[in-house]
């Protein structure tokens, strides 16, 4: 369908979208995602919360401060005035938002969208070269930056990357001083529902980053599809580890709570001990983290009171059945698994409540449809392995990037994951397409071997990859973190190999076992298997 007239004066982002012939097919088959032509996501979330009578409800808990929705909206409105009046924001401009999960960064995101900017949130640990690539790709002039993390952003500015203005956030910093005298009412920019609200850059530090453009309607769609599937109730409190710059975290901690009028509790620092402390302190009901996080919290559960938890969402990578069952046995909570993608903004296959089948990712989230396709692009029969294809109200739109043609084919988003679907419509993860190991003529999915290893009581974490071998070409290699590192050695390696042979087909067992103290991970908890292949 044709795009509505833009509300932006700066047309760079819209002009840099792919040709419409390369777009995915956007589908709006459910009433929940039938949005009006003019829409500002920040106004819909914050002003909408107040209009529903939720102004006095707690929006965000943190160690330093607690805000109601009325107070959060007022702060966002003051910042929007600063952006327009003092920082000369032109509607449609991209604004770098750099900092840890905090109230300041939440206010920055809302304020930028309200003022008509396009939010570009960045991972807190990025260094100057990574920030410079983002600044140049998105043509960013203005940055809102948490003062403790200013060095990398200032170095990017000094490199003449295109960044002209850095405004620091935090107590006593410039942004706070400018906000102090501003009106707490702001008329949000008249944006079209398909004006770009945010550019989400793909995680990782290798190669040229991809900027995924998402519309104002897409921001709401993630709440009105997967977010609604979680069945939020008044009094719920969400918390977890993904950064706001990771759309998993943006949805879970910024968008979903506002859409439902519930609260988020922000840990004071990264890490799973901080998350457990936050759960105990604020009575958190729902957690959001990667499988790595749930395994880490299993080792911490006796030191903290986690009894307030009623649900948890796992995403970022496949949730092994062994981890699901261990968490259920320890806490009584049935974890919700889900697969999402930065390109799709959030989770599109999942299951909740009684629909959960341990080990399966789930079914297509209402509003989406998914299938498993072969090399010819056609659906394969149930039970056969193929590439996952999905479409719905959100989809991949890379900013000025030829890789659009690889991700989107015939209107479908091709995620790069191998799956099989069972006759009941449940999707079962096999591996990433590049994690399939071909050894001695057999196709072996690394995650299946990982699942077997995790069932052994000695294993804390593991990652399985292909390893070059002079005799066999490629062998299955397991990198294993033991619960008791002193047990590492040939005897334990053989025990694990024999255990895998008894658990899955013997030809899949890892011929090489490498014991390690830790696995390489991204900031969002994903295991970086590519680093283990070198």
Polypeptide structure, described:
The protein is of the alpha/beta class and 534 residues long. The protein has two domains: 12-421, ANL, N-terminal domain (Rossmann fold); 440-532, ANL, C-terminal domain (GMP Synthetase, Chain A, domain 3, 2-Layer Sandwich). It has a nine-stranded mixed β-sheet. Strands 16, 17, 18, 19 and 20 form a five-stranded antiparallel β-sheet that branches. Helix 2 packs across helix 4 (103-114), helix 2 crosses helix 8 and helix 11 (291-298) packs across helix 12. The longest helix has 17 residues, at 69-85. The two termini are 46 Å apart.
Concise summary:
The chain is of the alpha/beta class and 534 residues long.
Q: Runs with pLDDT <50, length 5+?
A: none
CATH topology of the largest domain: Rossmann fold
Which percent range fits the helix content?
Answer: 25-40%
Number of domains: 2
**Rg, alpha carbons:** 23 Å
Name the CATH superfamily classification of the largest domain: ANL, N-terminal domain
> How widely separated are the two ends?
46 Å
